[in-house]
Amino acid sequence: MNYRHHYHAGNFADVMKHILLIGLLQGMQRKDAPFCYIDTHAGCGWYNLASAPAQKTGEYKQGVRRLQPHKNNPEWVKMWFEQLERLRKEQNGKGYYGGSPWFALQMMRPQDRMALMEFHPVDAEKLRENMARYPQVAVHHRDAYEGITALIPPKEKRGLVFIDPPYEEERQDFPQLVELLVKAYSKWPTGVFVLWYPIKDRAMIERFHKKMYKTGISKQLACELCVMPDDTALGLNGTGLLIINPPWQFAEEADKVLQWMLPQLADHPMAKATVSWIAGE
């Protein structure tokens, strides 16, 4: 997988994680107290799907292109469509798709704040340009593995850390990320941590889940959408979110949304969507 998100913007993994991110932040809004949203690999904020990188892979055709607005869509999906349409109107183009910073920004109330990290210098500069008119947003050109623990706990005391890293340098069962989550949780045990991970091989994911269980961190939820059998040696078979401290009733609603999403994004008879607790409930 190429590090820069331009190549993958709007694919089925993006669609799944952004719709569930909206649900998570809606859960954070239940309390009036402010929260801080921290994004560790923020990219550029949004992307033009007509650009050369997106056209080269065409991954968006199996993601955002497959969904249509409908009155019977789940609430989080309706909100996703509304936020996507807002971006396209602002950019004056139907080919735009938001990154996680864009969808999170639409969920910010006046009392809330965002801190966005991006290590790639070109993307960091573009992110800073895109977010310049939003006073709630701070952009940091820094490495996430150092930046997370430097930024938490935030002054708001409440918040969500969204970790969407490249996996080019991660070994098979993601030991760096397990270590990072342990360090972050030890500094901020009440924070909500969300880690995106690719599903290419089920045995590898099971080892990762076992490692996370052994950390002793309570309230770990795994949400997964596999558009292909999860042991097909063809590339990205599925997408997952590991969520520590999910908001109240999030798991039940996420399961409903994923079951709705499954036939929209997958054609294979062995495709599946699951929501399961790795630790606690």
TrEMBL record:
GO CC term, one of those recorded: cytosol
Superkingdom field: Bacteria
Binding site for S-adenosyl-L-methionine: H18, H41, S100, E118, D143, A144, D164
Biological-process GO terms, alphabetical: rRNA base methylation
Keyword RNA-binding (UniProt): yes
Residue spans crossing the bilayer: none
InterPro entries, A to Z: RlmJ, SAM-dependent_MTases_sf
UniProt GO molecular function: 23S rRNA (adenine(2030)-N(6))-methyltransferase activity; RNA binding
Active site: residue positions: D164 (proton acceptor)
UniProt-listed Enzyme Commission number(s): 2.1.1.266
Reaction(s) the record says it catalyses: adenosine(2030) in 23S rRNA + S-adenosyl-L-methionine = N(6)-methyladenosine(2030) in 23S rRNA + S-adenosyl-L-homocysteine + H(+)
Keywords: Methyltransferase, RNA-binding, rRNA processing, S-adenosyl-L-methionine, Transferase
Record-annotated site: Interaction with substrate rRNA: Y3
Pfam families: RsmJ (PF04378)
Function, in words: Specifically methylates the adenine in position 2030 of 23S rRNA.
Subunit structure of this chain's protein: Monomer.
Family classification: Belongs to the RlmJ family.
Name the UniProt record assigns to this protein: Ribosomal RNA large subunit methyltransferase J
Source organism of the structure: Fluviicoccus keumensis
